[in-house]
Amino acid sequence: MAKIKHNNFLDTVVEVMTNAKDEGALHLYAEGESFNGRHIQIKGKKLFHFGTTGYLGLEQDLRLKRAAIDAIERYGTQFPLSKSYISHPLYEELEEKIRSIYGLPVIITKNSTLGHMAVIPSIVQDGDGIILDHQVHWSVQNAVQPLKLRSVPVEMIRHNRLDMLEDKIKKLSNRCNTIWYMADGIYSMYGDYAPIRELIELSVRYPQLHIYFDDVHGMSWKGKNGSGYVMSVLEELPENAILFGTLSKTFGASGAVMVCNNKKLHRRIRNFGGPLTFSAQLEPSSVGAAIASADIHLSPEIYELQQQLSDRTSYFNECLKATELPLISENDSPVFYIGTGMPETGYNLVNRLMGEGYYVNLGIFPAVPVKNTGLRITISRHNQKQEILGLTEAVNHHYYKALEETHTNLERVRFAFGMTNHTNISQTNKLSSLTCEIFTTIHDMKKEDWNKYMGNGSIIDWDGMAFIEKSFTGNRKPEHNYQFYYFNIKDSNSKVILMSLVTLSLWKEDMLAPISVTREMERLRVKDPYYHTSHILSLGSFLTEGDHLYLDRESKNWKEAFSLFLHKLEELENRLKPSTVLLRDFRTDDNELNDFLHNKGFVKVAMPESCVYENFTWNSEEEYVSTLSTRSRKHFRKEIQGFRDYFNISIDQSVNIPLLEKFYGLYLEVKKNNPGLNTFNYPFELFENMNDSKSWEFIILRLKKEENQDEPMVGVMFCYKNSSGVYVPDLIGMDYKYSRKYQVYRQLLYQTIIRAKGIKCSRIDFGLTAAFEKRKVGAKVIEKCAYLQTRDNYTLEALDWLRTD
């Protein structure tokens, strides 16, 4: 299979967000002439508000409001001057009060995003390195991105995995002066914590390690003077740590604050920190409100407010314990996450709760993996115990109805979040009108049935699958052994609605990454050939391309059948534990299927374009040339016809072993020179099986013999003859000493067309790569996409940090 192109991340996010918006779960507008924090009005309905990040409710405190109004009346709506020149009159008072909260030097920034952009490039030197927790906030990751241009190495670890962190420290220790680990104090989606004490202990063992905490969601409701979760654990900030807090969210005003115990670093950032120098300063109203909030934080009242919130969060925890709702992280934070699994279940449940009078946030990709959609419920001092109880009862009542309506169950949700070791994730609502058979060998499928629905292209006909099974079982290396699963779903009248091929195989994870990442990964694989590899459950196999799934879209049961297929895949996933489920080779313009799979928890990724040749109406070379575009005719005459006389062309079904070994060497040469085809090298046994099969043949190009010289073999096309009359040039080998000079690749494409015409094939499946070249010889180009579902976003995000393009 060809390498999947790097997906445009923004396009994917936009599609997911658009689906959520269309389902009424995102991009809503609050209404009404006033707002009290306890209620929020949406679409004319007054709802209890369980979606705020103002956990202490200070944004509604009259003291903060009056201070903001007074500041506007005294100093205007803004103070339009860089803070590097002059700070407006209230700034110094605010800085002194925030310094008192922490007992350390601080720097106030416009917001945390701009703060990270100012601080991170200032503290990280060219000889340093960075390690990111893969769930650290987007604003931190965004601020790190430009450092790659300075050749600062950036690594990523799975969430809170200290063993991975220690390995990365060891990896970077010889080439980095300081190693910065960046994490959140409390993570904004699941409400779980960073292992603060363990990180400090690690920094003692490895003095190069410095720690950068984003604690904006831990601010105010925790810690001495409301200094946040991180400070509640540390009590004193060490010199090798930097902390970010916020003056918005729970603090009730606007802005952010950086705290450090290193005077040299503090001075460096304050004197020149990018956005600190060139961005506008906080508006007088924000500074006024922040001063009023700081006064509360510096008084005993802050502990009363913290206790009031703690009572509410404890009460919600108690309420949830009386249910079986899947709370993803149980602790004392005001952020609660109840998993729903598939996005469509989340949409359904959010809308049901709004109908009952409760607003909660929806956690969705990219903030969480797409299959880890859920309710993100936040508790504030505005919420009263009776409505907390009411929310619990409403969620508990509607949760199971949402599961039922979207054809899933609690065990499947728990499995999606890694909360169960059970193997039973069978559906509660059995799809009784359909039956599903699963076979593990093509020999258990009726040949005529398989070929009728699945055998019309590529190497997916019955004989082709028998060949692939023979070639990829019982081999020595793990990457050369596949597990095969054949699905057959029928309705009550025994009519086939869905048929498919699925394999489990070992993939290089950078199959989903751009070529720059592949080159870096292959460099790292010199020492560890299985670095960043994992098992993937995928439609089709590496050797097949095209339609790996037959789906009768005319049937009224097609969505039901597809849902059953996905559920059976999930049962396989539960048993086989792949890192990813990949559905591939779909048309990009199928919007109905696109929406269906997004709602089922799959993310769309782009693939290389598919190429087919079908125009065999010509009977001579000149007639063939007339079917091409004007530009392609010139290309043909100059680069194909112009070199044809240099070659002797032969077609063999079977060759001797020494010649087959030369074929294999040419195949390996193409693999080496084409990082876009970054699969594992196929074993020589595959080519031996081709040599023994009547369905395979070799188109061989040799340069014509010159005086006293042998004919060098410069190219070979490995071609499969499908039982339905489709010709499949599946693999290619070339000698790169000659390939460019003699246009070997283009000649092989043309000779493939000539051969397919000669044996009266109806179509050539040219595969997924080199669409530009194949278009020149008359191939039709079809845009293709895939849909993937991962356990977490770690692999995609970690590999993205290796990009240099």
Main β sheet profile:
8 strands, mixed
Going by CATH, the architecture of the largest domain would be: 3-Layer(aba) Sandwich
Q: Helical region count? A: 27
Radius of gyration: 31 Å
Q: Termini separation (Å)?
A: 23 Å
CATH topology of the largest domain: Aspartate Aminotransferase, domain 2
Rounded mean pLDDT score: 91
Strand content: 15-25%
3D shape: globular
Oligomeric grouping of the chains: single chain
* Uncertain segments: 1-7
Backbone structural class: alpha+beta
Domain Aminotransferase class I/classII large: 48-385
Keywords: Aminotransferase, Transferase
InterPro entries: Acyl_CoA_acyltransferase, Aminotransferase_I/II_large, AON_synthase_class-II, PyrdxlP-dep_Trfase, PyrdxlP-dep_Trfase_major, PyrdxlP-dep_Trfase_small
Cofactor: pyridoxal 5'-phosphate
Key features of this structure:
single chain; 805 residues; alpha+beta; Aspartate Aminotransferase, domain 2; Aminopeptidase; eight-stranded mixed sheet; 21% strand; disordered N terminus
Plain-language structure description:
This protein is an alpha+beta fold and 805 residues long. It contains 27 helices and 28 strands. The strands form four sheets. Strands 14, 15, 16, 17, 18, 19, 20 and 28 form an eight-stranded mixed β-sheet that branches. Helix 7 (196-205) links the parallel strand 7 (179-184) and strand 8 (209-214). The model is unreliable at 1-7 (pLDDT under 50). It has four domains: 32-55 and 303-416, Aspartate Aminotransferase, domain 1, CATH 3.90.1150; 62-297, 3-Layer(aba) Sandwich (Aspartate Aminotransferase, domain 2), CATH 3.40.640; 435-609 and 787-800, Gcn5-related N-acetyltransferase (GNAT) (Aminopeptidase, 3-Layer(aba) Sandwich); 612-782, Aminopeptidase (3-Layer(aba) Sandwich).
